[in-house]
Amino acid sequence: MHYKIAFPGLCPKLFPRPVKLSVRPVRLSVRAVSLCALVFGLAGAPKAQTLDVSNLPKIELHLHLDCSLSYAVVHQLDPTITPEDYQQQFIAPTRCTNLADYISRATREIDLMQTPQQLRLATLDLFAQLQQDHVIYAELRFAPLQHCQKGLSPKQVVAIVDSAVAEGRQKTGIQAGIILCTLRHYTKEQSMQTVKLAEEFHNKQVAGRTTHVVGFDIAADEAGYPITNHLAAFQYAHAHGIPCTAHAGEAKGAESVRETLANFHPSRIGHGVRSAEDTALMKQLRQQQIHLEVCPTSNLQTNIYPTLADHPIDRLYRKGISVSVNTDGRTISNTTLDREYARLAAQFHWTKKDFLTCNLEALDHAFTSEAVKTRLRAVLIKAYASQ
Q: Any idea which residues carry the catalytic annotation?
């Protein structure tokens, strides 16, 4: 594609005729929108000395409810737990042995989420954290079968969390949905039980309101278990119109992402960072518009990369792959979106344009209605262009 641009009024010796510029074709979607919003919104504004996105609206797609309890709610649920206990038992070290070691830190939180009141308080606590982080849309995921230790049925667990999400949405104004997770070590029957719960609570009318389950996921340690037990569940999800994401490309390499795409057919991949190891796979992700829910700090803790400088999020983003920035488990990783953004800005020199792009990509791939996407897209563009 070629353009001729004239420079009237400038030195004719420098520009005696219109300059011919060759422009490589680019994907005119979210990235074009974000660039235009910032170019026209910030024209003439003085250049900021430091990047501060703390007050800007954000989208979070990859967020585990049962890995994100603040100390305030933990102490409320069990007053015997001290700040020292919380630091040692709930927050993972900066470097775990592997993904399985990282996941083991969730046990204490799950133990505190076994009654209706515990589930409600934990959910509302997460909404309070999201509000502090200026999140305007979030998808909260958890595995309901893990919360039946004190007599609740899986259906009761989902109903309780769904009701708490409705309460949190009303109190904070945050748009939020629920993703139900099967786990890699589950049996075929457990996976089917989970996906049928997702279908039962997927945008259904209950007690005069719409339920908030929006999708289905598979989580836990991908390196230790095959996909065989879960094929039927994902087939059921697709047959019943339930959007799907799937953890892959975290504990295992690029082959894990390939296998997941080929067998589960999700529109998004949880983490997926190991895709950077395979050029052909990155091309496939671009062509199929597969979105990667990237969680940088979590990936460092699970010992995938030695430092943030080695993390491939910047490379994936520059290659035109759809990525978003997420926390994974706010407690286990001791992080917020503000912290994730600040680290990426410092390491890779990301600007507001880059963060707007990632937020718009996340919104485009969110499991919500086009009406919600249209409204929130306008909020994002206006906010990032005006500051």
A: 250
